[in-house]
Design brief:
Keywords: Membrane, Transmembrane, Transmembrane helix. This protein is mainly alpha-helical. It is 48% helix and 0% strand.
């Protein structure tokens, strides 16, 4: 604010900041980057261990709900649901159609009745069938 009869004020100018002699943008060295990655991995592993594996005793503690949730989800990976069991169980209600009879022969008996043919014999027989 300027008072009447006073000369105008000069703006305040800060002194110039000398430029730094150090480089301004330096990429981290390989050692420092490796140290960062190691520190992050170590902290993540320790957190995982403390939350999911460390034994805090028999009483309920703050990580128990998360542990139960993880246990339920890992158990669901290794168990079948009722719908999956029903889909994979043999169908006992339906009988095979009367025209279809299961083959009760062993592989040895089958190949004695139907010998395996090699090379030109097999090609000649295949040509007869076509």
């Amino acid at each position: 604010m300027q008072l009447p009869g006073q000369p105008p004020r000069k703006p305040i100018v800060p002194p110039p900041i000398p430029p730094s002699k150090l480089p301004q943008h330096v990429a981290p060295s390989k050692l420092s980057r490796a140290t960062q990655i190691f520190a992050f991995s170590l902290a993540t592993g320790m957190t995982f261990y403390a939350v999911l594996l460390y034994d805090f005793g028999p009483r309920e503690h703050v990580f128990m709900p998360l542990r139960r949730w993880v246990d339920d989800h890992t158990a669901s990976l290794f168990t079948l649901s009722d719908q999956d069991r029903q889909a994979l169980s043999p169908q006992r209600e339906r009988a095979a159609p009367a025209a279809v009879k299961p083959d009760t022969r062993t592989p040895i008996e089958y190949f004695k009745e139907n010998p395996w043919k090699k090379g030109s014999e097999a090609e000649a027989e295949a040509a007869k069938k076509v």
